[in-house]
Design brief:
Order of helices and strands: HEHEEHEHEHHHH
Number of strands: 5
Largest sheet: 5 strands, parallel
CATH class of the largest domain: Alpha Beta
Helix content: 40-55%
Number of helices: 8
Shape: elongated
CATH topology of the largest domain: Rossmann fold
CATH superfamily of the largest domain: P-loop containing nucleotide triphosphate hydrolases
Strand content: 5-15%
Strand order of the largest sheet: 2-3-4-1-5
Radius of gyration: 20 Å
Distance between the termini: 29 Å
Length: 223
């Protein structure tokens, strides 16, 4: 059967609180984000690999606190100063010429006792901040890490990626994936993207044989 054209359409990602699954791998970060009043110095650094749920948790936090969400890449000298809680996502991508803005924002938040949530793949001490005063302040933030997923969280993340893309794998296909997937968030996301693309291109359902064939071509099947 000829392959169909497959377009990489964005998934309809759901980031509401009810869509977040709590397991032993992320229960501590989830609990801390529910109680920002307990954060030392009103700031917290949420660290985790790509696809681990940092953005989802940040959205839940913002929904509960009314926080402004900024991506570090988009911060400029003209960005308005926050007047309430602030989330800075992808802090490890903060441009050098935006460091002074974040320094002043940090001090304003601290003065007014508003929460500052930072997210990144690595701790703030490894962000390469060149402004010494900012580097020391961010490095002093309490740090919490999202661990690699256990089986329960891996299953939930996998099913969420399928749901976001409106895909319906068979139960035995899901069981096969859980058994053979690498225990890494970004791997789960990449595999679901590949399965979506290949299923459309080949006009195949997401059955166990199809999933196994795709994983074999990706050299991910450990069995």
């Amino acid at each position: 059967m000829p392959r169909q054209l497959a377009f990489d359409l964005p998934a309809n990602v759901r980031l509401e609180a009810q869509d977040f699954f709590v397991s032993s791998a992320n229960e501590m970060p989830y609990a801390l984000l529910q109680t920002p009043s307990t954060w030392p110095d009103h700031k917290l650094a949420l660290i985790g690999p790509a696809g681990s749920g940092k953005t989802h948790l940040a959205r839940v936090f913002a929904e509960q606190t009314g926080a402004t969400i900024l991506n570090a890449r988009n911060i400029t000298a003209d960005t308005p100063m926050p007047t309430g809680p602030l989330v800075v996502e992808d802090g490890d991508a903060l441009p050098t010429d935006s460091e002074e803005w974040l320094f002043h924002a940090h001090n304003a938040l601290r003065r007014d006792a508003h929460a500052l949530l930072l997210t990144g793949k690595t701790p703030p001490s490894r962000w390469g901040i060149t402004l010494p005063d900012l580097a020391s302040r961010l490095s002093a933030a309490t740090r919490i890490t999202i661990e690699n997923p256990d089986d329960a969280l891996l299953t939930a993340v996998l099913l969420k990626h399928f749901a976001d893309r409106q895909l319906a794998p068979t139960p035995d296909a899901v069981a096969y994936l859980i058994k053979h997937l690498p225990r890494a968030f970004d791997a789960v996301r990449n595999i679901v993207e590949t399965l979506d693309r290949e299923a459309l291109a080949q006009s195949k359902p997401l059955s166990r044989p199809f999933v196994r064939t795709v994983l074999d071509t990706m050299h991910l099947d450990e069995g």
